[in-house]
Amino acid sequence: LDTDGHNIFCSGQFRNDGEIVTGYSGFQDYLVSYGGAGGAGAACGPHRVVRGFSTLASTSSVSKNGAAMKIPTLSRALLRRWYRIGLRHLLAGAAGGGGSARVGEVGGPGAYGLYIQARRIDAGIIRASGLNGCSGRGTCGAAAGGGGGGGAIILAYGNAGLVPGRYLTRGGSGSMGACGTGGRGGSGSAATFSFGRMPPIAPMPERDPFSGVSSTRITNVTFARRGSMYTVTIVGSGFGTVAHIAGRRKLQRFRIANSSERFEAGYSGDRIPLDYRRWSPRRIVVAGFHAYPGDCIAIGIWNPATHQAAAWGGNVPPVPVGVPHISSARVAASGEVTILGSGFGATPSRVPFASNQNLVILSDLAYHSTNGGPSILYSIGGTWTPTTVLVDYWSNTKIEIAGIEGSKGIDNMRIKCGDPVSVEVQNAWSKTLTGWGGVAQ
């Protein structure tokens, strides 16, 4: 059974007669996790050490090995709190230095952890081991990858008892290359908790992020041109109302950006105003927006009454030949992104690579992004941001982002499940842009 970072809840008995593999975590820091840290990688050149990704433990600067972690003393209250935070992020091991284990990358992935809760548990074999770093041959070149960290395992059992099993939580080995040797990933650990008759966690059923997370949605956007100015009509639901909209030029609940021309209009504090014509719960009309056919547009809407928001991205029609197009995107709260479409162009750099050069920009439009109200300030991958995207794969029709790296921005902002998010992609050769908006998984 490959649990892929998910957890197991049974009202009766859980019995494992085979082997559970927890799957492998993303290439990012898990700063609140009790899994092992990734080992450091070794590279040629002036920066010879490529640090491993961190958990609550960090890579040792002396040995390059990822530090091991132990699960603290458990209680019913602690487990409930961890469940609300998100067990996946609290139990995962982190990847080794050097990126990911896909083509051209050298660091070993860390292992997800696993939480099992049942009245009786027959544990069997549970594998939450980090993978080894790339061996230094073939696609790895002269670099040496660090091993991934092991995940953490928690078995919470009731009054029917526990049959212990075999728990494999070791970190992966570092590899040897022409320029050095990578460090070993830190090991995770396993712990048990006896809860008697009252289970500590009453799990909520998983749900589609598009179902019930936010009633604020954008379903259609149209552009009516007059010269170089456009009237933009946004149709959807949950927009709320604005009293006395006539004559308004800026609002702290709407923004529209022309990413091709690099300006934003209509939001409080913007230099460029809009002419707000209509605002109802299902339709917004704004005029006086400057654009040209094919320009990449990103829209954000916030409803202060419900504290919900929506995002949209696309291009002004008619779209010229050669402008890229996003047909679908999947943005995970972990920072892993898969983008499908056309016209992305040839790989702008040898993969894997980290970018904050506007090639791929992720933006989070949720209310929690700052302490002071709605904001689109949390962006990743732009030249103005301290945070980079780790590009794992790039072709003309598909882009994969393995995670994010660097500062989380103002107020430690981060993407959360259900957040409205936008994605922008630039063709590195033609410099044309396209956009997409949706919800983080």
Describe the protein:
The protein has about 450 residues and is mainly β. The protein has helices at about 75-85, 85-90; strands at about 10, 15, 20, 40, 50, 115-120, 125, 155-165, 165-170, 175, 180, 190-195, 215-225, 230-235, 255-260, 265, 275-280, 285-290, 295-305, 310-315, 325-330, 335-340, 355, 360-365, 380, 385-395, 400-405, 420-425, 435-440. The longest helix is centred in the first third of the chain and has 10 residues, at about 75-85.
Rg, rounded, reads 24 Å
The count of helical stretches stands at: 2
Query: What is the oligomer described by this structure?
Result: single chain
Total DSSP E strands: 29
Helix content: under 10%
Q: Can you tell me the overall shape? A: globular
How are the SSEs placed, and which strands pair?
Blueprint: E1 8-9, E2 13-15, E3 19-21, E4 41-42, E5 49-50, H1 76-85, H2 87-91, E6 114-122, E7 125-127, E8 153-163, E9 166-168, E10 176-177, E11 180-181, E12 190-196, E13 217-226, E14 229-237, E15 254-258, E16 263-265, E17 275-279, E18 283-290, E19 296-303, E20 308-315, E21 325-331, E22 337-342, E23 353-355, E24 360-364, E25 378-380, E26 387-394, E27 398-406, E28 420-426, E29 433-439
Features:
mainly beta; 5-stranded parallel sheet; 441 residues; single chain; 2 helices; 36% strand; 5-stranded antiparallel sheet; globular
Give a short overview.
The protein contains two helices and 29 strands. It is mainly beta and 441 residues long. Strand 15 and strand 16 form a beta hairpin.
